[in-house]
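Standup notes
- DV: blocked on the single-chain target, sequence here:
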Amino acid sequence: MPQNILIGCFLIATVLIAGCPNPEIEPPTPPTDNPHRIDFVGSEGPGVGKHIVFLAGDHEYRSEELLPALARIMAKHYGFSTTVLFTLDEEGFIQPGSSNMKGLDVLENADLLVLGLRFQNFPEDEMQHFVDYLDRAGPIVGLRTSTHAFQIPDGPFRKYAWDYEGGEYFKGFGRQVLGETWAGHYGTNHEQSSNVIPIAVDHPIFSGVESIHAVSGGYFANPMPDSVPLAKGVVLDGMTADSPPAMDKEQVPVVWTRTYQGSEGQSGRVFTSTHGASEDLLHPGYRRMLVNATLWAAGMESEIQSDSPISFVGPFHPVTYSFDGYRRCVRPSDMAGWDSPIMNPDHPVTDE
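- DV (later): unblocked, structure below
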């Protein structure tokens, strides 16, 4: 075969393997100054005038799918203005967990922060905005791997790392703010799911919640003593809600609330769930719990109703969670608006 044909075949194969479109035929640059960011602006509901910021940057549980879906729900059904920031690669495509996130200055006026992070080491100028938010004790919803949101080996923000040993901020942001750091899997991930059992059934966060099944595997947790456990997890020998309980696993806290202190003694509300894969959002009980928790963390528990809307806004196509199992060649702007898919099922998944 002539050499030029071989080269041509190689280039075509490379494009097919990569699965990304030719840059020459990509859509035009999105109409925003920040390619990491998308916004959804609600117009009716109790959240009008309030702003929620979502940070999507974990490696496995597809926060890049869960958080924009939740952001749309809170904007469309409840009137909030919501902003989602994503970690990107050098070409501007979503790369879960890359630590390349810009635009955290949006936290300056945020009313609530919702996290789906894991082992992040943000640029120092970006991390400073996050720390400023903590200093003013802004309320936080932390999901799944956000208990180990930061892995910072050195520098001025080392103490926020999940494994920090200093007594003044032991185990970093996860332990000191969310109430727990990374404490290990509890059961076999991808083989054992959990039923989430409320132990504070009268708490407004469980209003209208009939049952909760989470396909994300259990985490062990022993939250800070001042935390208030709201639910425990029953580890199941299987991935469906009707799987039998694992007889060798006790129930451990999987949902709790607490408050943390800002730099001047202010108090900030915290809701933490050790479950939180994008597939978990498909279960109406988990989805309602997150909607209620978002309202509660924002100080709006009086607005929680047992029949408040929790339906998805636009198509939602979560993938099965796994390391590197994310949809490639997706820009945040691809999910702009109410009707674009989260995410387009035509985009390849990296581990397929």
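- Follow-up: Residues 3-335 form a domain with the Rossmann fold fold (CATH 3.40.50.880).
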